[in-house]
Amino acid sequence: MGVSAIKGFYKDRKAMENGVQALLRHDILVISKSAMQNKHISFTDKEYLTHMYEAYTRLGGNGTIKRMMPLLDKLPVQADVEDVGE
After folding, report:
1. First to last CA, the chain
2. For residue range 5-26, what is the model confidence (pLDDT) as tens digits?
């Protein structure tokens, strides 16, 4: 494998990492906005946020999301709507 092929591989990989990071950021913000408006978070959304945030930070994400997570951690966790009837 030549040097230019290796550079291309790393360039493509970085582009993919940036794309995944952007998608994670978007999903985290969508769930967070809903939770903040409702003043609670569902168990499932809390679990999703935890996993997405871990992946997001491993990809180098920080800033707004990092400052927002402690606020979300303080929200009451409620049972998912489909769990209420059980």
Report:
1. 58
2. 787 888 999 999 999 999 999 9
